[in-house]
Amino acid sequence: MEILLWIVVIAVVGMLVWSLVSLSHSPLDPGRRIPWAFLMFLLPVLGPAVWLWWRFYYYPRRKAEQPSWDPNSREVIVNPPRRPNAGN
User: Fold this and answer.
1) pLDDT digit string (tens) for the chain, length 88 residues
2) What is the pTM of this model?
3) How far, in Å, CA of 9 to CA of 6, rounded?
């Protein structure tokens, strides 16, 4: 049982470290990185999981759909509704 606990602790710490390294190399401004880092330390499993989802799933897809989108912009962007594929 103790070994399982150590494995879980090592996995959580590894995910936290990986998330912080990813955060340090992210396209966000330093001022926007601080709340993410705080969230990661406050919620050591959920915070890194949400960051990794944003960084590797949401951000690339949003950037592909809207190349001019900037995650550091403070203006509100309303996405147009997606059109269904008519011919496919």
Assistant:
1) 899 999 999 999 999 999 999 999 988 888 889 999 999 999 989 999 999 999 999 888 888 888 887 888 777 666 666 666 655 5
2) 0.72
3) 5
